C-alpha cells in the first residue's frame, strides 16, 4: 500500500496535485458550482431534491466528523487518517448548495426588491472558504451551515407539503434552527477541541442573530418567494388564447439587449390597451394566488402610485410556468411597472416599461409568439 502511495506521489499527476494543492479548495468550489449549473432544473424534480438532500446530509456528516478528528476515540481510525480531506468535502458541499440557491433564486425576470438577499447568496457562493485555516473556524462552520440549512428548508418544505405561506416559512425556520443546534450540541459533547475553541453563548448568539436576520428579510419582503419563480414577464400589444396557447404580440428590443424580451419603450395609440403577460413556475400541485399590481410613477410627487391590483390563481406543474395576463385601458404616458406578487406581498418579479403615445421614429420590431 505504501509503495503504491509513493509511486502515485512521484507520478506526473501526483506531482502536479502536490505542487498546486493550495488551489484545491478553489477547484472543488468551482466544481460544485459547475456541476449544479449543468444538472439542476426544476426545484420539484426528484433528481434535484435527491441531489440537494444528499448535499445537505453529507455536509452535516462532514462537519461532524471533521470536528472529531482530534478525538482519542478516532485515533488511528479511518476518520483520522483521511480527516485532512474533510475541509475539501465541506467546501464542495457548501459550494454545491450555494450555487443551487443562486440558480433557483435568480430565476426571476426582476429581483430589484429582493436583490439584497440574493447578493448574500452571491457573497456566500464567491466567499466560500478557499483555505483550510478558515474552514477550521468553528463559528464560521456552524453559521454557514445554519444559513444554507435554513435556505434549503425554506423551499424544500413547501415543495413537500405543496403549500406556501408564512406559517410554512416559520416551520422551516424552526426546523433548521433545531437541527443546527442539535448538531452543535452533538459536536460539542463529542469533540474536545470544540469545547476549547467555542464559547457556548457566543455560538448561540451568532446562530440566533442569523435566524433573526433571515426572518427580518422575510418580514420586509426581501426574500424571493422560492419555490415560485417568474419564468417570463413582458409588456405586449395584444394577447389571445387559442387551443391552450397564448398568442402574444409584443415589441422586441435591439439584438444586443439580450437580457430582456420586450422593449421598455412601449409605443402605442392613445386608445390602445396595454397587456402584461407572465408565466410563473410553481411545484406540481401547489396552488397560489398571484397578483399583478399596476403602478405609475408620479413625476410631481416622485412616488409610485398603485392604480390597480388584478389577481388570479396559479396551479403548479407546468414546465414553462403557469401563464396569465392582465391589461389596462386609457393609461397615461410615463413610467410604469407591474409588480408580480403573492398574497403575502412577496415579489416574484417586476415588469418595467415606459408608455409613449407618439409614433416612434424607427420601425418597431413586432413579433408574435406562442406560449
UniProtKB/TrEMBL annotation:
Pfam families: DUF2914. The chain crosses the membrane at residues 23-43, 49-69, 85-104, 110-127, 139-161, 167-189, 201-220. The keyword ATP-binding does not apply. The keyword Transmembrane applies. Signal peptide: none annotated. Residues 288-355 form the DUF2914 domain. Keywords: Membrane, Transmembrane, Transmembrane helix. This is DUF2914 domain-containing protein. It comes from Polaribacter aestuariivivens.
Amino acid at each position: 500500500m505504501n509503495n503504491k502511495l509513493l509511486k502515485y506521489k512521484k507520478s506526473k499527476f501526483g506531482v502536479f496535485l502536490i505542487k498546486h494543492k493550495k488551489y484545491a479548495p478553489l477547484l472543488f468550489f468551482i466544481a460544485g458550482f459547475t456541476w449544479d449549473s449543468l444538472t439542476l432544473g426544476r426545484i420539484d424534480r426528484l433528481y434535484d431534491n435527491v441531489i440537494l438532500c444528499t448535499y445537505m446530509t453529507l455536509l452535516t456528516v462532514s462537519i461532524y466528523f471533521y470536528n472529531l478528528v482530534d478525538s482519542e476515540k478516532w485515533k488511528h481510525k479511518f476518520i483520522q487518517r483521511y480527516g485532512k480531506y474533510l475541509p475539501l468535502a465541506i467546501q464542495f458541499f457548501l459550494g454545491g448548495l450555494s450555487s443551487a440557491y443562486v440558480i433557483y433564486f435568480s430565476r426571476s425576470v426582476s429581483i430589484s426588491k429582493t436583490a439584497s438577499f440574493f447578493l448574500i447568496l452571491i457573497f456566500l457562493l464567491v466567499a466560500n472558504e478557499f483555505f483550510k485555516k478558515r474552514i477550521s473556524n468553528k463559528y464560521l462552520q456552524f453559521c454557514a451551515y445554519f444559513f444554507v440549512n435554513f435556505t434549503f428548508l425554506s423551499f424544500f418544505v413547501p415543495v413537500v407539503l405543496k403549500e406556501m405561506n408564512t406559517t410554512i416559512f416559520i416551520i422551516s425556520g424552526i426546523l433548521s434552527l433545531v437541527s443546527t443546534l442539535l448538531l452543535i450540541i452533538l459536536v460539542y459533547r463529542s469533540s474536545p477541541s470544540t469545547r476549547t475553541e467555542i464559547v457556548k453563548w457566543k455560538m448561540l448568539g451568532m446562530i440566533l442573530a442569523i435566524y433573526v436576520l433571515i426572518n427580518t428579510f422575510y418580514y420586509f419582503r426581501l426574500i424571493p418567494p422560492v419555490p415560485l419563480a417568474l419564468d417570463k414577464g413582458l409588456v405586449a400589444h395584444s394577447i389571445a388564447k387559442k387551443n391552450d396557447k397564448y398568442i402574444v404580440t409584443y415589441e422586441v428590443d435591439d439584438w444586443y439587449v439580450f437580457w430582456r424580451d420586450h422593449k421598455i419603450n412601449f409605443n402605442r395609440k392613445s386608445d390602445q390597451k396595454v397587456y402584461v403577460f407572465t408565466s410563473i413556475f410553481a411545484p406540481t400541485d401547489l396552488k397560489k394566488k398571484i397578483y399583478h399590481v399596476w403602478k405609475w410613477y408620479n413625476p410631481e410627487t416622485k412616488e409610485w402610485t398603485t392604480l390597480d391590483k388584478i389577481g388570479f390563481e396559479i396551479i403548479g406543474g407546468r414546465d414553462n410556468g403557469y401563464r396569465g395576463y392582465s391589461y389596462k385601458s386609457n393609461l397615461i404616458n410615463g413610467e410604469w411597472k407591474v409588480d408580480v406578487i403573492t398574497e403575502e406581498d412577496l415579489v416574484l418579479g417586476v415588469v418595467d416599461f415606459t408608455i409613449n403615445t407618439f409614433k416612434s421614429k424607427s420601425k418597431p420590431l413586432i413579433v408574435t409568439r406562442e406560449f
